[in-house]
Amino acid sequence: MEEWIVTEEQAGNRIDKMLSQQFEDLTRSFLQKLCASGDVTVNGKIVKPSYKVALGDCVCVSIPEPEQLEVVPEEMALDILYEDEDVILVNKPKGMVVHPAAGHYTGTLVNALLYHCKDLSGINGVMRPGIVHRIDMDTTGVIIACKNDYSHNCIAQQLKEHSITRRYYAIVHGNIKEDEGTVNAPIGRHPNDRKKMAIHVKNGKEAITHYRVLERFGQYTWIECQLETGRTHQIRVHMASIGHPLLGDVVYGPGKCPFSLQGQCLHAYVLGFIHPRTQKYMEFSADCPEYFKKLIIALRK
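Below the sequence we write its predicted structure tokens.
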């Protein structure tokens, strides 16, 4: 149990912001969860993360003991692009879920990483050790995982500041007229379908996607997308919103697909970041998967 009195310098701040300054090794989202679970009190009362502290407030924080990981390590082949004592970058295959969740408790990237690395950062909890960002099950390509809390916090901060380079290849329906463009539309949970995301909804968060045309095939277009933000389903939602849903996307695109595909044609081919330990910029890429290459050849005919 941590307890202290709010100083004049701290007064007026949201309690989650003040706590993140007090506990630099913990993420703000984790501290917000502590507030929601009643582990943070002010003057003996449970408060929301948005509560603004006042001079002389007595703040008590109870940080629970880390839970023991219950996710089972599994021996699986990993296409490792880079690895050191802090981070590991993997070229994720199609059909692999990033971390255990309802319906997918085995066969995930986390299961494989736990077998390979043994130790991963614990900031995101029992079910998501090491995971600082995600890509969808049927999206392929580069993903980074962190082996300790120090590197996790560093990469998470870069994601928050939108300083990480993330470029994707995608094939979309229709012939995009412009050579390049930007979709700037906030994304949030769909009001009528909780499994989908949508633009311009209540409580939507800023979302910006830059795209440029690589090749046109008449009815379809091959594009490169660069993320400025990283919202759930961002590229899929943004491209669908301008009338060019991803080929193979059964959630945001047409019901029928003329090609035999497993989900959307989306590949995370470049990831660049400042290394937590060396403070040097590093960039990694993953070649397009075979299905993507074969589809490009077929579309050119």
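The CA atoms of residues 165 and 272 lie 5 Å apart.
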